[in-house]
Design brief:
18 helices, 47 strands, alpha/beta, about 20% helix, Toll-like receptor 13, Rossmann fold, about 950 residues, Leucine-rich repeat, LRR (right-handed beta-alpha superhelix), binds 2-acetamido-2-deoxy-beta-D-glucopyranose
Length: about 950
């Protein structure tokens, strides 16, 4: 009995519990230190990041739908054949900066979608024939900085789409050994810089013409360069920088047409004789447009012949220690449009520049100019002028003459301390002006009336201490204004009034105080999208009289993080963000904020990104977040949080990334995760947990590979119980927790069982008869129910069913039966005659009773003691109950005193209520007895027995 009950009792319960446990909507997973969802990105590819994590092998469980893998900067030494199995969607694979010396056969065979493979900075020495098997769609192959000295003959033949191969920084000695690479039909770009190539012979490379467009040969000690056939007809760019270190270079390009399409040539650090340099230049004297002659000892002597290349338009002469250019022949470079003289020692522009009439871009950064020479005025075609990091101190009204075409002016990194109002007046086409890292303390009206087309103004890292009303009033087109890293303390009302086109205003790292945060200061900035107010002195006030940014109707991005003095308690006044109805990102880290006002975000329903890290938000109320219905990323790192329960009510249905690292979260409730259906990335690093069974769900959840990635979950540690301190949370034996659960469950169920058994026995003991009675009532009910419809309307088979004890059979057969059947003509059912053999006795009885209109119980001492009889009474009395009519006729064969009936209290109450006939009394005059019986049998619906229902209920 115990086991059966156990089975039917526990099975459904188990199923229920299992269902409760298993059906939850958000499940989690972790790749340990690795990451699949990039918090820096919103949506997109499935990118697997695991760079710089001390990996010794490729992580075993890569997501099958991964499109990008970055496992650079680790200690992986072998790529095993199964490492990238089945990753058929992988597009880019970055395994640079590892210790790979061996790639097993077929390691890349499944990567049919791979287009970029980066194996740079490893320890490869040989590229075997099978190395790249499978990579038929590769376009970019990076093998830089290995120790490759051998490339086997057919190793590169798998590629059908490879366009770019970078083999720089290896140990390849000759181009012959690179023939497999040159044979790639689709190759456009080849880098073989920093190898050991000393002979570059076209016949060693190919006898057919190649498609190559870009060839980087830099830093090879080439001493023989011989091109005897037109194998590079498509070559456009060649890098020969720092080649030919050996003085005895043999340069033989047999036909000047061989490089007829080369437009770009880099010859930095080519220190060969002037004659040889000229020979090299001659070989490219067909369509060369861009030439770099940097870090060349005798650059000046080469300028002359270079300027004879009629197609040259961009000439880079960096880092050549040039002090002056007189006599170099530069004046002949009138075809040059872009002249780059960075990193020289120029301090003046000589007459030679006068003839560079076509110059549109002049780059003079990192020279010794202390002023901008007047010669500049002649360069009226100039569009870009660059004097960065010189010694320029002042700008005069005539400095820029009439450079009306100038678009970009780079002046950062000088010593300019003043700008007069007339300085930029003629620069009517100026779009970008970079004046950062100077000593400017006042704008002196320089932008009061223009330049009207200026779009970008950079004034960072100067000494501005205040901004005046007219400072920017002429900059109608200004789109970005960078004023970061100044000493701005005061901003006048209306300073930005004219800047209706301004999109980005950067005031980071100044000394702005709350006094400058009034709506009027920002008036006019109706199109501002981004406002940087980080690292100032704001947010010291408890409240603002008016919402400070109420004019910034379009603002999407606002940062106020890290106000100093840093550690002071500060507040976010409740109206701080009011009217910012378009705000999407709000950055308010490291402010010492203790709590947030419920109304703070009331207007900011568009916020998707909210950063509150580094504050002191021990407790947060869910109400704060209710307006933030679109919140996508929430940063709450290091905020002294002890619980995340506030999230349950916060309604953050779109939250994708939750960063709650470095808090005091000892546990996390499942309901929190359930309340964040959009959660895909959870960062709880730097918390320590209570390692008991309350975290069992979490451990399971993390390990289930589905929706939410839990960053570095394998690193989470326990802080209690004491014996588990510093144990890893995920190492906790959830199984044991489970069995504890099950044990508890079995304990509870056995306990319940014992109780049940006890209770049952008690009931059985004391209420045995009632139970058996109820059981038969139930049977009768069932029977009746079955019969319903089938025989209800049909007549009865018998007029009476006689229920009697075997001891009384003689009376029944000799007295009762002859009278009733013979004389009175009733059809009588006796179980001895009429029961169907083989049918269960109870069924026979029930059939008998129900097949008869009445039931006659022949009651004697024996009858009362017999079980069967009482069952018959029960079924009959149920009919009495059910059909509300008197079907029971009690015939007492003996005089039974009521007290003797008391053990058979059912009978007693029946006797009390029902009509009953007594045989002993009738002996004197049996006619009356039979007549009464005849009447009783003949009675149909007994209206006089209305109360029988309640009688039976009493019986029960
Ligand atoms: C590979 O990853 C490293 C580390 O993230 C990165 O610096 C490098 O640029 C990547 N290389 C490519 C080709 O993406
Ligand atoms: C090109 O032809 C020459 C002479 O027929 C031969 O020596 C050389 O090996 C060939 N080069 C290649 C790359 O096939
Ligand atoms: C380049 O060719 C032009 C003629 O087209 C010639 O005048 C000039 O000297 C050549 N320059 C060099 C460096 O060979
Ligand atoms: C302005 O340019 C014109 C030629 O375009 C030139 O004649 C004039 O001298 C220039 N003005 C100054 C101040 O250099």
């Amino acid at each position: 009995m115990h086991t059966t009950v156990h089975r039917w009792f526990t099975a459904p319960l188990c199923i229920t519990l299992y269902t409760v446990i298993c059906i939850s909507h958000v499940t989690g997973f972790t790749y340990g230190d690795c990451m699949v969802h990039d918090p820096k990105q919103f949506r997109g590819h499935v990118k697997f990041f695991c760079n710089k994590k001390n990996l010794k092998q490729v992580p075993p469980k890569l997501p099958l739908d991964v499109t990008d893998i970055n496992i650079a900067h680790n200690n992986i030494s072998v790529i095993k054949s199964g490492d990238f199995q089945n990753l058929i969607h992988l597009g880019t694979l970055n395994i640079s900066r590892n210790l790979i010396s061996c790639v097993e056969k077929g390691a890349f065979r499944d990567l049919i979608s791979l287009t970029e493979l980066c194996l740079s900075e490893n320890r490869l020495t040989v590229i075997t024939n099978e190395f790249f098997n499978g990579l038929t769609n590769l376009k970019l192959l990076l093998l830089e900085n290995n120790s490759i000295s051998t490339i086997e003959n057919s190793s590169f033949s798998v590629f059908h789409h490879l366009e770019c191969v970078k083999l720089s920084g290896n140990k390849l000695r000759d181009v012959e050994s690179m023939q497999p690479v040159f044979r790639i039909q689709t190759l456009n770009v080849l880098h073989i810089a920093h190898n050991n190539i000393s002979i570059f012979h076209s016949t060693d490379i190919s006898n057919k013409s190649l498609r190559l467009q870009v060839l980087n040969l830099a830093h090879n000690p080439i001493n023989i360069f011989r091109i005897s056939a037109d194998i590079f007809p498509h070559l456009e760019a060649v890098d020969l920088s720092f080649c030919f270190s050996n003085g005895g270079l043999k340069w033989e390009v047999l036909n000047t047409d061989f490089f007829k399409n080369v437009k770009r040539l880099e010859m930095a650090g080519v220190n060969v004789s002037e004659v040889k340099s000229n020979a090299i230049l001659q070989a490219f004297n067909k369509s060369l447009a861009q030439l770099t002659l940097s870090a060349v000892h005798r650059a000046k002597s080469l300028i002359n012949s270079t300027c004879l290349i009629p197609t040259l338009t961009e000439f880079t002469l960096r880092d050549n220690r040039i002090r002056n250019l007189t006599g170099t022949g530069l004046e002949k470079c009138f075809q040059v449009k872009v002249l780059d003289l960075y990193y020289n020692s120029l301090s003046n522009l000589e007459n030679v520049f006068a003839s560079l009439k076509n110059l549109t871009s002049l780059q003079l950064g990192y020279n010794n100019f202390s002023y901008i020479p007047n010669m500049i005025h002649n360069l009226s075609m100039l569009e870009t002028l660059n004097f960065v990091f010189n010694q320029i101190e002042k700008l005069d009204c005539f400095t820029f003459g009439n450079l009306t075409n100038l678009k970009n002016l780079y002046l950062y990194g000088n010593k300019i301390n003043m700008v007069k109002d007339c300085v930029f007046k003629d620069l009517i086409n100026l779009k970008s002006l970079y004046l950062g890292t100077n000593h400017i303390s006042s704008l002196g009206g320089a932008f009061k009336n223009g330049p009207a087309k200026l779009e970008h103004l950079e004034l960072s890292s100067n000494s501005l201490s205040s901004l005046k009303t007219d400072d920017f009033s002429g900059l109608k087109s200004l789109s970005s204004l960078r004023l970061n890293d100044n000493k701005i303390k005061v901003i006048d009302n209306g300073t930005f009034e004219a800047l209706s086109s301004l999109r980005v205003l950067n005031l980071l790292s100044n000394k702005i105080t709350d006094e400058s945060l009034t709506p009027d200061v920002f008036s006019g900035l109706s199109n501002l999208l981004q406002l940087h107010l980080q690292k100032n002195h704001i947010l010291k006030k408890d409240s603002f009289r008016k919402a400070p940014f109420s004019h910034l109707k379009s603002l999407q991005w606002l940062s106020v993080l890290s106000q100093s003095p840093h550690k002071m308690k500060s507040f976010l006044p409740s109206n701080f963000l009011w009217n910012l109805t378009h705000l999407q990102s709000f950055w308010a880290q490291n402010l010492g904020v203790k709590s947030l006002h419920v109304d703070l975000f009331k207007d900011n329903t568009q916020i998707t990104e909210l950063a509150l890290s580094g504050n002191d938000l021990t407790a947060l109320s869910p109400d704060i977040f209710l307006p933030l219905r679109k919140l996508y990323k929430l940063y709450l790192e290091e905020t002294h949080l002890k619980t995340l329960d506030f999230l349950v009510q916060a309604n953050l249905h779109h939250l994708y990334y939750l960063q709650v690292s470095k808090n005091q979260l000892a546990s996390i409730n499942h309901s929190i995760i359930q309340s964040l259906p959009g959660l895909r990335l959870l960062d709880m690093r730097g918390n320590t947990f209570t390692c008991d069974c309350s975290m069992a769900w979490f451990i399971k959840w993390v390990e289930e590979d589905d929706l939410t990635e839990v960053l570095a979950a394998n690193k989470y540690e326990c802080n209690s119980p004491p014996n588990l301190i510093e144990t890893k949370l995920l190492k906790l034996d959830v199984q044991s927790c489970n069995s504890q659960d099950t044990a508890f469950f079995f304990y509870i169920s056995s306990f319940l069982l014992v109780l049940l058994t006890l209770f049952t026995s008690l009931i059985y003991h004391f209420l045995h008869r009632q139970i058996v009675y109820v059981y038969y009532l139930f049977l009768a009910f069932l029977y009746d129910y079955k019969r319903q419809g089938s025989s209800k309307s049909c007549g009865f088979q018998y007029d009476a069913f006689v229920s009697y004890n075997a001891h009384d059979e003689l009376w029944v057969t000799s007295e009762l039966l002859p009278k009733l059947e013979g004389e009175q003509g009733w059809r009588i059912c006796l179980h001895h005659q009429d029961f169907q053999p083989g049918k269960p006795i109870v069924d026979n009885i029930v059939d008998g009773i129900y097949g008869s209109r009445k039931t006659i119980c022949v009651i004697s001492q024996h009858y009362l003691e017999s079980e069967w009889c009482s069952r018959e009474v029960q079924v009959a009395s149920f009919r009495l109950f059910d059909e509300k009519k008197d079907v029971l006729i009690l015939v007492f064969l003996e005089d039974i005193p009521t007290y003797r009936l008391s053990p058979y209290y059912r009978m007693r109450s029946l006797v009390k209520k029902c009509t009953y006939l007594s045989w002993p009394k009738a002996r004197q005059d049996p006619r009356v007895f039979w007549e009464k019986l005849r009447v009783a049998l003949g009675a149909r619906r007994g209206s006089e027995e209305e109360n029988s229902l309640s009688d039976v209920q009493n019986v029960l």
